[in-house]
Amino acid sequence: MSESAPQEEPKRAQENGKEDKERNQEGSEAEEPIQYSQSMSDSSAVGTCSNVTGAAANKKSQDLNLENQPKLSTCSEKESKTRVSKNVVFRKPAKVIFNLDQTAQDSNLEQPWKKNLLERVQARAQAMHQKIIDKENLKKEVEKKAEEKLPRDNLAKEWFNTENMALSTRAYLLDKLLPTLVPGMERMLMQVEKKKLLAGVDIPTKFDPINHLGEYLMRNNPKYIKDSGLSGYQRVMRDISEDLKIYVPNTTYNRVSKIKENIKQKREQKEYINDVKAKVANARKLALQEQFNEWILDPKGMIPMVVIQNVLHEFFRNPDLQLETCCLPVDIADSMKPRLNKTEFTQLVSLHIAGFKSETFEKLLKHLCHCADEFREIIKTDMRRQMFAELFLHCDRGKVGFLDRQRTLALLETFYDQSSKVLRGILRNPRQWPFVEFGEIDLPEFWGDTDNQKHIYEDFDKVLLEMDTLPSEKHVSKTQSKLSASPEDQHEHYRESSLPQSPPEQQRGATVEQGPDGISTREQEQPEESTGEQELNEESVSKKGTYTGSTPEQRPSRELIIEQGVPQGTHIESTAEQELPEESITTEGQHEGSTTGQGSHGKSTEEQGSLRESQSDLEQPREIMAGQEAHRESQSDQGPHRGSTAEPQSPRETILEEEQDTDFTSQLSKGSIVGESKTSRESISFEHTEIPPQEERTQGQPYEELLFISPELQEKTGVSSPEDHLSEPAKKEVQKDKSCEPKSQKIEGKSWTGELLTCNWNMQYAKHEDEEQANLIYGNSRFADLHSIIRNIQSYKETKGRSAFNGVSFNLLQFVQLLETFVGEDSPLSVSEALTSFFKKGFVETKEEKMSGLEKARQNASQIQRELLLKALFQKWDSDGSGFLDLKEVDELLYTYKEGMEKESMKKAKLHVQFPKLHPGHEVRLSCKQFQKYIELVVSELRGNEEEVLESVVEFLMNSLERSHVESLRNCARQKWLHQIQRAAETSGVSLEPVYTETFKALTQDAEAHGNKKISAHISLLEENLLLPDRGNVLLRNVACTLDDAPFVLKRVLYRDMKGISFTVVDEGKPIHVPQVQHHGNIYFWNHSRKKSDHSGSFLALPLQDAYMRIFGVLAVDTLRDPQKINIFLPHEIRFYQGVANVFSTAYHYVHSREHILHIVITGIGWLYNITPSITAISTYFVEPNSEKDSDYVLRNMMVTGLQGLTEIHKNPPVVFRKTCIFRDFLFKCTDSSEVVLASVCGENHIVVPLRERTGEALGVLDVNIGKRKMLLYREFKDLQKMLKVIQLACSEILGELSGEIKKNYILEIENVGEVQRAGILFFRVMLRELQECLGLLTSSDFVSLLLYDYDPLAEDEAPSDSQSQDLKANIKLVQDILKAIIVFFNPKLQSSDLESWDRCKLYVNQQLVENICDFDPTAMELEVNLELIVEYVEDHSRIEVWKFGNAAIEYLYHWAHICLALIKLNKKISGAIISPPLPSKTDSYVYAKMPEGSLPGK
Known about the structure:
This protein is extended. The two termini are about 75 Å apart. Helix content is about 50%, strand content about 5%. Helix 36 crosses helix 39 and helix 44 packs antiparallel against helix 45. The model is unreliable at about 1-105, about 470-740 and about 1470-1475 (pLDDT under 50). The strands form eight sheets. Strands 19, 20, 21, 22, 23, 24, 25 and 26 form an eight-stranded antiparallel β-sheet that branches. A six-stranded antiparallel β-sheet has the order 15-14-13-18-17-16, with helices on both faces. By secondary structure, the protein is of the alpha+beta class.
């Protein structure tokens, strides 16, 4: 650039001079600056520099045309290219842009004469334009005066005729002849009349009319004579002529008229469209303004803007609508402070939906209505969480920041035991998972427990199974008897059914049968076999308990089976011991209404849409929501009932058993059904049910548990709806009454304060101890030299806000999440208030416990401060960024502490230290963690207070280390580059390409900044040599390199029999530096086209080591492309490159650990999907730091498993931000607290489980979507727990091995094949070990009881067949087949005929068989197994059959057999795609993965 700039200045001056001349002649012209870009190879850059410079000097005096392209010097090309981007694998070619700084600025300056000329030209043009306008105005005035003097003669209009035959002729005559001929004829006739020639016909005369007319035409030829004026007739004729010309085809007038007509039509059409759009926009604004009233507002009548932005964001991302490409992107705010009033709300929504069609807008309205209800639940949840947060601060009297976990769980168990049965149906059992961790459950109980009573919901399976016990015939007969009753009886029946005895009946309008025990059951008969169980699993258990009526439009649209497992009502005995406040426990069904018959608890959007499908009217969009208003209304949040019952109940809603009807009064008195006064019952009308607010339910009146059947079954049984008995006016009146109900602004009688901590809950309450300790260090002047280093360390810690689970105590976030999981989303706030009051009274700590907590908090703070100081000290000491310190150097400096007085004590500390193995050269290197442990042990041996001694030692070492300012700056830059490599791994989405890029970028930047070199680099990894084993057992494959070397180096292979020092580095494990490669003789050059004379430079090869100091690759750096003669690597550069190799190794294994975890999760999900049909989808997320500074972490959606068990793995996984998940914040709740979260969103229930690091923090999240079911059956719930436990154990093992904390444990032979193959079978191996351990705990009596299952086939044929004998026969066959399959595993030569005798089979069942099972390796190379016979015995028995049998030994053996079969089949397909890493390639946008079904148990 510096050399080319002077040559361009005279050229530009000449161009400017010539331009000035051209502007004076032709006018002003705009000159566009020309940018030149040119890229040339390194070989030609130097050679052409002098030639181009000389040519430019010879042409200084020549004139240059503006159109010619000037020649540019290529000398500046080398300076223009960015060396960093040039040496990276992936980059775009650089552009060289010459900016003519001062010359370009001078040419753009406007000169004075140009300004004057422009002003004069503009003034002259304006004057000419004004003159033309004045002339036209004068002409119009003259014509106007002439029209006033001579009126128009409309007789000329008779000439207007658009007949096509004479159209052109008539137009020609009217234009050319008739304007002159008609006045001539008029003059001629006037002369004839004047001479009275018509009176005397025979009078001779000289007047010839033809001559007279000819003379007139010649005298008045319009071509030569200018007419002074037109008569009225001529004026009309002229207009007629002009109008007639437009009808003459293929003429200018005709074409112009058509164009004008088209323009007019388009203008009118555009105006019409604009009018319609304006009306539509106004109608939509009115609809949005009315919809705004459905939202709960803050005291100022406003709503947070981020909430509405989230609503739009979710709607635009709906894959069914495909709106992301046609809608404006929603820039979601980061704070809750911006608020919107009604006008701003309408403007914001209207801005993003301007191009929406009517159908899409209708869907948006439905979505807004649904989100308005969801927002109420969010506020309610936020109120509950704030209540629990205040409870934590109240219980944490010592302000230590944590509470005892066991004490908290004990109080929850006490509260649960003291609660009523109905309330326990809503609360979650604190004695079960997820409150109890997997490690706290005994293995036999975890794997063999089949007791359905231990479900997280009390009697959950029992209630579901009882639905199938009552015959459908009894239901039909009862229905017909009710329908045949008199109208008076029906009226009375409606009145009774309208009572609040069964509010869920009012909600769903479903047929129920209620037994004597007060538990209503489904009246549908289903066979007790596997298919019936699957159908039962597919029925959804509604988690929500809002009790609203179902409109006639809703019922036909509901095609899903809805089950109400547990009502929303809650109850706690109002005893003196509990001392609960009055009205502390209420039923949310009294308070909640819903837009679509399900309340604000989250019914699916599809069900909402079904209500509004038939009501789409653009002019009246509010009427669409009006028919649903009553279902969402909460008009009496202040009172006991939010939203009146909008419909009378039908017989199908109130069909009860006869004994229930007769004993109705007694049930009310006993409190099993919510009672109400006689006055309230009499006030209920036939057409409209209304519960007055005076009749409030008390805490001693719980709702009874009810279950519902599907609308399809109701139609089959012939049950009618209440609207069938109403007249049309009555129906309209009911609908009108519901739409007129106002929207309450209170939640269970409580107003919203406007505070919402959903988005910043973590930042508000999370305690960051490291930041507090860092601030304390900043205030200590003793460590001033470490302050900048600590600030950098804190800034690099980007994944903040995650709490670590330790199993001993809860911090605030974990405590709040635990209590929220316990009470559930369905319970009203009064339950949370009762729990809070109970905790305040029951949570008592002794003085010793308080002191212990304070001491623990102090030790924790001291440990964090110690780690910060020692880490900062390590980085200052390691100024070159090598990542390690020499133990000898550390000891030499430590021994000088207090002038050597503590030397002996320090030597004693070395006796307790387990140092890493010696490196080549007999040196011991300490990593950062090893250095911290060593210093802590040394300090523990010194006399005095440990904290004071540590600070003194750190201060001494800090002051003893003398570092110049240049070294400090170099260290800071290198630490930043090293951190970027690790961060690239954390944000790569399980991809190594960003890691390679950042690695080469760090090497190149350091070489330029601190070495003044141009380097090339490549990374090669060790692989097993399978194709050419004679050339060595292993090979080195180049997997990444800098850009310039890509054609020669990338994907090349280096064998042991080839030249090179890379294998020497692999064997010795230490770096090798070759200062001059041309004199070495054993260097392999990948670029064979390079001349030998160019083989000058330095070469450095560094080993890549894992946590166990094993070599897995080589990092090579050279200076062959550097033009300098002396370009050897300095010692500080070599040490930094060692640090780069160390950080790259960490990042490499970090990415591979995530790959292995994904592989484990896919295997576990495949196992679960084959035995659990009720799961809708499972999504896997990983936690990543956010790219923005000082921001929260993000979640990356790695893969999604659908209904068919097919897992879709994304190549570019989408990122989920917290601010976009106000309505789906359960993912971040789980990650924040590292605890299981049970949530419901859009009518779908989720079980969100964290994948934990070994430190207890969440590294990922598994989102298990169970659809509209309240919870899984206990069998499925236990299988889910088994899958999650095994995945967590396998992930912990993977992470421990890659970090070096634990040694690799190879149990099966297949694990020695490779890391990827091992990750593919690790899930089965961990499960196999768990099952083998459980089988080892069985006693001989457990197996003896199985051997007693025997029967005589002949006796069975003679005995009568009934259900009990069939069940016994099935159980005997199950036990015998499972045991026979186990026997065949160890006796492969046995045939089916050999096992026909059960007495003979008993001989194989002994202690030796159990020992063989516990030591069995299904992947052994010499294993012989009769797979066909084993599969024949096992495949006929489903998972449900084994579960129903309920024997722990059979449960163990069944799973053990299937796991062994899966491992055997995977071992046979070791070279197939099943074991390969299930990740997408570079050309794939996603990839599907699925485990084989044949090896896994069936449903």
